[in-house]
């Protein structure tokens, strides 16, 4: 009798686990345009004349025919800018949080030793102008929902190909509710193996993609180094979820990622040749 009770409990837990994993399956095939190009991580940058997330890095990506992955967040006065870090220290040499600075304040700083500054998203949009697809990461610094609202305003009438992604499932849920036609992706990694300082419940939930039932992502963008993570593979094999690999930094890593992923975000090298269809595991 105890065995039957235990078996029932295990079955119920497995069912709940699989239900939590379930992403949006109503738009199978919607990611095809993103499979056709490689995506330059923060633009096609070199950290000298064209630093990451700079207008010049995005121009180079567009000219090279690459898609671009970029990061957006808001300044203190509500300007939507393209920048990755929470702090300006690494890229501008100033120990200030971007979301606590006004746009006028950050305009006095340059990206590394270049003449480039932190760009407004609207200026990046003018460069892209529908020529290549974009993967737009909404940062969780400051007020992520407010950032999502600002971004949606710029993209409401944009006719180019793009999708949004975030580590925060609440941001994806907001997009699901207010802009259900916009393709959305859940960013994640193995929080146990990358020595993250996140709380245990976040490590468990985000590593194992247990918020998919809530965010209903159309694709999963996962650190390719952890491609064998169980929940990721179940999403891929059971629910046929599209997988995007970040961040590929060598030809060897690219070949490794082809085994499970169809969308590739790269930096530190330029992929040779045309994008080939990845070999899928049986």
Structure description:
- By secondary structure, the protein is an alpha/beta fold.
- The protein has helices at 2-21, 32-35, 55-64, 89-92, 103-106, 121-128, 144-155, 169-178, 200-207, 212-215, 230-237, 251-257, and strands at residues 39-41, 67-74, 80-82, 134-138, 162-166, 184-188, 219-223, 242-248, 263-266.
- An eight-stranded parallel barrel has the order 1-2-4-5-6-7-8-9, surrounded by five helices.
- Strand 2 (67-74) and strand 3 (80-82) form a beta hairpin.
- Helix 3 (55-64) packs parallel to helix 6 (121-128).
- The model is unreliable at 277-282 (pLDDT under 50).
Feature tags:
eight-stranded parallel barrel; alpha/beta
Could you list the spans in which at least 5 consecutive residues all have pLDDT below 50?
Answer: 277-282
Assign the structural class, choosing from mainly alpha, mainly beta, alpha/beta, alpha+beta, or little secondary structure.
alpha/beta
What fraction, in percent, of the residue positions are helical? 25-40%
Strand count, sense and barrel status of the largest sheet are:
8 strands, parallel, barrel
In spatial order, strands of the major sheet run: 1-2-4-5-6-7-8-9
Q: For this entry, what is the oligomeric state of its chains?
A: single chain
How would you describe the shape?
globular
Beta strands, count: 9
Instruction: Give me the strand/helix succession.
Output: HHEHEEHHHEHEHEHHEHEHE
């Amino acid at each position: 009798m105890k065995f039957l009770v235990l078996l029932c409990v295990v079955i119920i837990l497995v069912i709940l686990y699989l239900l939590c994993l379930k992403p949006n399956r109503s738009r199978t095939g919607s990611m095809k345009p993103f499979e056709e190009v490689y995506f330059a991580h923060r633009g096609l940058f070199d950290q000298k004349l064209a630093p990451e997330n700079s207008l010049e890095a995005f121009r180079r990506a567009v000219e090279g025919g690459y898609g671009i992955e970029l990061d957006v967040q808001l300044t203190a006065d509500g300007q939507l800018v393209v920048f990755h870090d929470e702090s300006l220290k690494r890229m501008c040499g100033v120990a200030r949080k971007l979301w606590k600075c006004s746009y006028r304040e950050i305009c006095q700083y340059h990206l590394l030793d270049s003449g480039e500054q932190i760009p407004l998203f609207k200026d990046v949009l003018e460069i892209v102008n529908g020529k290549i697809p974009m993967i737009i990461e909404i940062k969780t610094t400051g007020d992520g929902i407010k950032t999502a609202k600002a971004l949606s305003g710029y993209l409401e009438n944009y006719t180019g190909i793009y999708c949004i992604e975030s580590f925060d499932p609440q941001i994806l849920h907001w997009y699901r509710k207010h802009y259900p036609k916009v393709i959305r992706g859940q960013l994640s990694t193995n929080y146990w193996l990358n020595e993250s300082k996140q709380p245990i419940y976040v490590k468990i939930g985000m590593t194992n993609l247990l918020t998919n039932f809530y965010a209903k992502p159309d694709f999963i963008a996962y650190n390719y180094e952890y491609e064998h993570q169980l929940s990721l593979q179940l999403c891929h094999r059971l629910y046929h979820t599209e997988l995007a690999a970040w961040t590929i930094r060598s030809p060897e890593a690219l070949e490794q990622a082809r085994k499970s992923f169809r969308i590739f975000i790269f930096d530190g090298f330029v992929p040779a040749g045309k994008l080939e269809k990845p070999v899928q595991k049986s």
